[in-house]
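Sorry to interrupt, but I need a hand with the structure work. Go ahead and set the record down below:
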Amino acid sequence: MFCNSELRGFEHRLNDFRARGVEIAAISVDTSEESRKLCSSEGYTFPFLSDPKAEVIRRYGVLHPRGGPNGQDIARPGEFLVDATGTVRWFDLTDDVKVRARPENVLRAIDELMPSRASLSLDIRPRSRNAPL
């Protein structure tokens, strides 16, 4: 619901990210099959990474225990700009699943970080400042 709204916004601005040399990826606790179905039904064209045991999500400290609709563990909303060396250059985290970053805010952060347009990756799912990719 909220996640799809955020993902659609990033999909609609995908060319703006790519023009800046930025690739987008999403990560969630959903299985690969659930992610494939979502991508197919919603028309998402960027990669979705599956972390059903929330191993990476926990490592990055963004697990929202029992935050899902049926009390399952989910990821807190978050967007991260990660450079080619794996260093997190910018992130936006929230505890409120209704509050999501707008693509325009992330694009502004990219422009501030990359005056020379060096390549970054954007993960719009959980990451933390100190965890490796």
The radius of gyration is 14 Å. Residues 2-123 form a domain with the Glutaredoxin fold (CATH 3.40.30.10). The chain has five helices and seven strands.
